[in-house]
Amino acid sequence: MVEWTDFERNTIQDIFSRIEYDVVGPAALARCLVVYPWTQRYFGGFGNLYNAAAIKGNPMVSKHGTTILNGLERAVKNMDDITNTYAELSVLHSEKLHVDPDNFKLLADCLTIVVAAQLGNEFTGEVQAAFQKFLAVVVSALGRQYR
Amino acid sequence: MTTLTAKDKQTVKAFWAKVSGKSEDIGAAAVARMLVVYPQTKTYFSHWQDQSPHSAAARKHGITVMMGVGDAVTKIDDLKEGLKELSELHAFTLRVDPGNFKILSHNILVVMAIMFPTDFTPDVHVSLDKFLAAVSLALAEKYR
């Protein structure tokens, strides 16, 4: 089981209470699709992903970005049992969506960058460490059911 | 690894022109962040009296690193040749595991996002990420 310090718990709750899911989610997903273009392979049905501007303006990307953040909220609310909380999601990403789990880390890095830009100097090294630890646990849980 | 396109080089040079005035702060912040978020990197600095992230030694090191990055921008057309001596330094004297180049690069990107949130667009991000990866590769050139 993952051990969380009080600082880490409070930091994660605080970040997620402050960020706007429908701003951060779309921004992070769009950034991932631009910075790591091979991730576009999972979004063939999303229409125009031709360039950064198209990706940013794509309503399906925005909607999905928000969906992702809402999914993350489930982990935020169940920090002591993320692995079980995400068991079904892991199966979904493996069996139905066929997402290479290495891609989860790419999206996590983009989320870190977007949240950093949002929080500015409040995104201290200590806050970053807590956020990245949280995302690493999420990434691990999502990859758990792959076989 | 991929080569930098003309667009990448142009993007990196333009962005660097905007931010280089703050390069000391960027470097210091990136190294400080690295020491906090990836504590295993402190193993390379056991010779520092003060290993805390905001120590004078850490700041000085951040400045040194960022000067190297700035230099690499001027040598962007041939990083392998341009960074030959730095590579020899890292290979034979410093012997930094090249995995750490990726770690520091990530923290440089995080600092860019914090300090330049509007300029650090996804297009700039991808070109800078590619550039830092190319620099890392050039630095590892002489390792073996």
Automatic annotation (TrEMBL), chain A:
SUPFAM superfamilies hit by this protein: Globin-like
Residues covered by the Globin domain: 3-147
Keyword Metal-binding: yes
A GO term from the CC aspect: cytosol
Iron is among the record's keywords: yes
Keywords attached to this entry: Heme, Iron, Metal-binding, Oxygen transport, Transport
InterPro entries for the chain: Globin (IPR000971), Globin-like_sf (IPR009050), Globin/Proto (IPR012292), Hemoglobin_b (IPR002337), Hemoglobin_oxygen_transport (IPR050056)
Gene Ontology MF: a single term: metal ion binding
Function text: Involved in oxygen transport from gills to the various peripheral tissues.
Family under the similarity heading: Belongs to the globin family.
Protein name: Globin domain-containing protein
Gene source species: Pagothenia borchgrevinki (Bald rockcod)
Automatic annotation (TrEMBL), chain B:
Keywords assigned: Acetylation, Heme, Iron, Metal-binding, Oxygen transport, Transport
Database matches in Gene3D superfamilies: Globins
Coiled coil spans: none
Domain (Globin) ranges: 3-144
InterPro entries recorded: Globin (IPR000971), Globin-like_sf (IPR009050), Globin/Proto (IPR012292), Hemoglobin_a-typ (IPR002338), Hemoglobin_oxygen_transport (IPR050056)
Pfam family, one: Globin
GO molecular function, one term: metal ion binding
SUPFAM superfamilies: Globin-like
The keyword Acetylation is assigned to this record: yes
Lipoprotein listed as a keyword: no
Homology family: Belongs to the globin family.
Function (record text): Involved in oxygen transport from gills to the various peripheral tissues.
Protein name as catalogued: Hemoglobin subunit alpha-2
